[in-house]
Amino acid sequence: MDRRTSWLRVIACFMVVLLHVCADNFYVYDTRWASANLYDSMMRACVPLFFMISGANLLAKRESLSSFLRKRCMRILPPFLFWSLFYLCWRSANGETIANWAQEIIARPASFHLWYFYALIGLYAVVPVLRKFYQHGSSNEQLAFLALWLLVASIYPMIVGLQDDLACGHWQASGVPAMYQLLYFGGFIGYFVLGAMLAENRGPISNGLGSGLLLFMLGSAGTAIATWWLAVRSGGRPCEFFYSYLSPLVITAAYGLFSACMSLPAGLPSRRLAVVSDCTLGIYCLHIFVMQNFKLTGVTAAAGNAWITSLTTAAAVFAVSLAVIWLMRSIKLFRHVT
């Protein structure tokens, strides 16, 4: 375990919490919208960071196919099923009728944020093939892959999406790439390769704390400005177009933050950091439940000064989620689902 990836897990996890805490203030274009837009724009690198960590940990590793599948299944399937059932129980307790729970889990996430598991299942299925390419391909071939991914998954959808919907933009991932069978370079798979390359300091730009933080700030500021521009252009209608995890600006921010952390000295994490890092998957899964219960007591980012309450609410949700998951992990039975 590397303390750099441990820090990245913790940072990305808190970013997810703050992003979701701010969400309620984003959809109304009022005095709270500016804070929601800025915080949301800065936090958008969160999920890409998780994908990049997975790429850094998996693509350079040498193991048999059976070993890989066994480890990944044990890592993903127990928490996926546990938290899906947890949120289905919660929905059922709140009066929702769910006819077929097994069908519901297969068809869609039990809670919106659990989409991450569905994405990981598909991405892990590709890793054995992608790993061979990464381990035996040259740096130029890997950079060519990233260039095609950036074009197909990010730049083209952004340009076409803005043309198709002049008011708010509409992310368009098919069209020409589908016709030319270029969708193999689409989706989140590029983050895996990018994370693996940056972990070995073989990215297009060398890892550096200053340059990485600058890229993160430029990508985040660009996202906030572009989102504000869309809102103004659409007559005060908040638009999430540039919040896409595949937006060029979000990719820039994720690249920068990951690169900045990778520029720090490697080494084992402290005991406390390791404990929090081990809890991040559970925090990710639980925090929506905690956040919704906070709302019932009036603890939200919409109360008071949104610039401050967004941060304090996110910190409280993160802390409570961490405490619960830490307690759950103290029981051996729950370690495989958190």
UniProtKB/TrEMBL annotation:
InterPro entries: Acyl_transf_3_dom. Belongs to the acyltransferase 3 family. GO terms for cellular component: plasma membrane. GO terms for biological process: enterobacterial common antigen biosynthetic process. It holds the Pfam family Acyl_transf_3. Residues 7-328 form the Acyltransferase domain. It is found in: Cell membrane. This is Acyltransferase family protein. It comes from the Bacteria. The chain crosses the membrane at residues 7-29, 41-60, 72-93, 113-131, 143-162, 182-199, 211-230, 242-261, 273-294, 306-328. GO terms for molecular function: O-acetyltransferase activity. Keywords: Acyltransferase, Cell membrane, Membrane, Transferase, Transmembrane, Transmembrane helix. It is a multi-pass membrane protein.
